[in-house]
Write a structure and sequence with these properties.
This protein has helices at 23-73, 75-82, 89-105, 109-122, 127-131, 137-156, 159-171, 173-180, 200-212, 236-248, 252-267, 271-303, 311-321, 323-345, 350-372, 378-386, 388-405, 411-433, 447-456; strands spanning 188-191, 194-198, 227-232. The protein has 457 residues and is mainly alpha-helical. Helix 1 packs antiparallel against helix 11 (252-267) and helix 16 (378-386) crosses helix 18 (411-433). The relative contact order is 0.09.
Length: 457
């Protein structure tokens, strides 16, 4: 035998002079190995932390970008967003007041009373009567205002107004895109620091209704000031720049955020802890976004003078325009909570182990009862039991895919999918326990290792 050990199977590849490590050398080797491992883990933690911070910062921007992109690229979604504005009582009252004031302002009440006085004088009416004809100006104006308001109010509250509103917005969608990017001049447009909506179609409809009811002078109402202000801000140019940026990145920013979060979980030494951290961080950012929307509502209401738009109408318009953004934020908040709880339940915590054990015992008892009644799943149940981890992953992936393919899922949709996933997992657990195969614990004892495996999953 070669003393160097090169001729032995174990030492065949050793260089000449290679020998087993001494106790001191082995200790030094293990120390260096631990140091290298620690540096490696520290590098992975740093990398995962940086990726998570980027994902957290981009998460609210991704939600905003997705919302803007949906409003710009999806006409149906845009019309669905603005449609309720026409049905808001505060907005209807504002439109009615504005249109009524515009119509009445074009009625020369003083001229009418003056002509009446002259006519009375020509008929040799008593001077006291002719001179006091001007006193009819106030009551006459009130009567005209009341009559015009009734007509306008019926138009504004009718289904026809809502239909005209939707048609106008659908046709103006291309103009909205131009407005959000700071270009164009059409139905929805930027005028100085105000975004306005042209309601000329509604004005024309009101004029025709007044003519039909005998107010022939309404046909002479000039076509002026047919706009209703929607938003007013001294930061419109900056907002348009931000809208353009968000529109450009609307498609890729959400994907980038998701990839960063996935890479952070994959890079971290503990995938489960990283997943919990991701869920908590995204949830916190969604709460921050909801708070930001509430703050922006207050800022917006303070920036709109009541002479431009009443506070209640402005608040209703803001709430209507951002309601889908709020819904998306709440949906992601619910998803973040579910992800965090799911990651915890797969961990070694006492509560998680108790819940897994209780669920396993419950499914086992239900499966044994099913088998005892003569309904056995046989080979299928054994296959489900042997591939429990695989089937669980498939069911969870199916639920996630359903949410991805769901157009604009809400928090209620997430709760529905979660309920279905949990129900399917419980059903699979019962079917696996109903195989009827004897295990180490005797008849029905096959569920004992099944429960143990379920606790480790």
């Amino acid at each position: 035998m070669d003393p160097s050990g090169a001729s032995t199977p174990e030492g065949r590849d050793r260089p000449p002079g290679d020998r087993p490590l001494s106790a001191a050398e082995r200790a030094e080797y293990e120390r260096l190995h631990r140091a290298a491992t620690m540096r490696h883990r520290r590098a992975r933690y740093v990398c995962a932390s940086v990726l998570l911070v980027l994902a957290f910062v981009l998460a609210p921007l991704a939600v905003l970008a997705t919302w803007v992109n949906s409003q710009v690229s999806d006409t149906d979604r845009y019309v669905q967003t603005v449609a309720p504005i026409a049905s808001e009582p505060s907005v209807q009252k504002t439109v009615t007041d504005r249109l009524t004031a515009r119509v009445v302002s074009n009625v020369d009440v003083d001229g009418i009373t003056s002509a009446l006085g002259q006519a009375l004088a020509k008929t040799n009416a008593p001077p006291a009567v002719a001179d006091k004809a001007s006193l009819l100006a106030g009551p006459l104006k009130n009567a005209v205002t009341t009559a015009v308001r009734d007509v306008v109010n019926k138009v504004v509250e009718s289904d026809q107004f809502a239909d005209l509103w939707n048609i106008a917005n659908r046709r103006a969608h291309a103009a909205v895109v131009k407005t959000l990017t700071g270009e164009g001049n059409s139905a929805v447009q930027a005028q100085g620091n105000t975004i306005v909506l042209d309601v000329g179609t509604v004005v024309d409809n009101v004029k025709q209704r007044l003519v039909d009811q005998g107010y022939q002078k309404a046909a002479d109402i000039p076509d002026v000031d047919k706009t209703v202000p929607l938003l007013q801000t001294d930061k419109l140019n900056k907002a348009q720049d931000a809208m353009r940026l968000l529109d450009i990145v609307g498609t890729w920013l959400p994907v980038t955020t998701l990839v960063l979060a996935a890479l952070a979980v994959w890079t971290a030494p503990s995938h489960r802890v990283a997943l919990m951290t991701t869920g908590i961080g995204v949830g916190v950012m969604m709460i921050v976004l909801l708070i930001g929307l509430a703050v922006m509502r207050r800022v917006y209401l303070d920036s709109v003078p009541t002479t431009v738009l009443p506070a209640d109408a402005a608040g209703d318009i803001y709430d209507t325009l951002v309601r889908f953004l709020r819904d998306s934020t709440r949906t992601l908040l619910v998803l973040a909570v579910i992800t965090t709880v799911a990651a915890y339940l797969y961990g070694p915590g006492r509560g998680a182990r108790f819940l897994r054990s209780a669920t396993g015992r419950g499914c086992g008892a239900a499966g044994r009862a099913l088998a005892g009644s003569g309904i056995r799943t046989g080979a299928t149940g054994r296959w489900l039991d042997d591939h429990r981890a695989w089937t669980t992953g498939v069911v969870i992936a199916g639920g996630a895919l359903a949410l991805v393919l769901w157009n604009y899922p809400t928090a209620a949709c997430v709760a529905l999918v979660l309920g279905i996933v949990v129900l399917v997992l419980l059903l699979l657990g019962v079917l696996a326990a109903a195989s009827g195969a004897p295990g180490p614990g005797g008849p029905g004892g096959h569920d004992a290792p099944t429960r143990e495996r379920g606790a480790d999953t």
